[in-house]
Specification:
Elements (H helix, E strand, L loop, with lengths): L1 E4 L2 E4 L10 E3 L4 E3 L1 H19 L8 E6 L4 H14 L5 E9 L6 H15 L2 E6 L8 H14 L7 H19 L4 E3 L4 H13 L3 H6 L14 E2 L7 H10 L16 H15 L3 H21 L11 E2 L6 E2 L5 H14 L1
Parallel strand pairs: 5-6, 5-8, 6-7, 8-9
Antiparallel strand pairs: 1-2, 3-4, 10-11
Helix pairs in contact: 1-8, 2-3, 2-8, 4-11, 5-11, 6-9, 6-10
Bound molecules: iron/sulfur cluster (SF4) and zinc ion (2 copies).
Length: 336
Amino acid sequence: MAGKVGGLDIPSCDSCNKPALLEQAYSGRVLCGQHLAKSIRKKIAKELRKQLILKKGQETTIFVAISGGKDSAVLLETLVDILGVRPDVKIIAGTVDEGIDGYRPPSLKCAEDLCKSLGVEFITISYKELGFEEMDTVAKLIPGMTKNNPGAPGMPCSYCGVFRRQGINHLAKKVNADVMALGHNLDDMAQTVLMNMSNGDLERTLRLAPHTNTPIDGLPPRIVPLRWIPEQEVHLYAVHKNLPIHHEECPHARGALRWRHREMVATMEADVPGTRHGLLRMADNVKELRNQIIELGGHQSRPSPPKECPVCSSITSNDQCKACEMRAMVKNELAN
Ligand code: SF4
Ligand SMILES: [Zn+2]
Ligand SMILES: [Zn+2]
């Protein structure tokens, strides 16, 4: 059924007669804001049942990495909604301040406001406090670094991703987290799968979160409860629930390889709805195959045993971890 809203033909929700907010091409469903929110919450609760193992009689601390953006806001709001009532679950949220002028201060404020409104403890740490240079400085140093160091990454996100991971791990450790929750949506996950496959990077495909049954050494298992929710739906949910979210994009984001994959996945999804789900299922199947091989007594996937980084004690498969290697390169460039 369709109705007229402001002179436009708007289809009606397939669960009630209200004007629809979304037509899900991949499922054929048509949903109003309320029913979309209901279906998203149901999908997240289902994922949580699969990904989150709560130990009987023990408290579980979940550290939720939030950025001030829509994905992690929806993640935190739904986690509080679904698990907040449980006395055996403690939820703490935190943000890493990368030092990006014009982008991080307002998004940090959104993250803080969200936590206040949900009654969640909020913690932060900055790149400076972690011993890294601020991202605005790193971005300025990149031309020099790529000139002086063969193989140095040419895009800010390559440094930022590595530094931020250390920051998130640091915050999770600080609160003794048992589990770390990340706000990756279906589009993010599909882009990552495609990127890893284009690189022939099986190791990263196998290490892709959720880590429920395969914790990565020394780190609390990461869960990604939004992994089946498309980005557009996460956004509609955030707006529907009126969550405080920062809409601006990081000034360093453009040009990153992820943008190319983002466009590719979006084009493929528009042509063949369900492509994103297919990419993610492919990664799940590869991980499942690995688990079956391990169960049969085959080799573990990791080629070399993990060691502790001599500088920061993080687990690494090399002599020094990537973050310390990049930190040294940046410091070197700054001193020149
Ligand atoms: S877009 Fe890149 S530089 Fe900006 S915050 Fe994200 S990872 Fe960091
Ligand atoms: Zn409805
Ligand atoms: Zn290190």
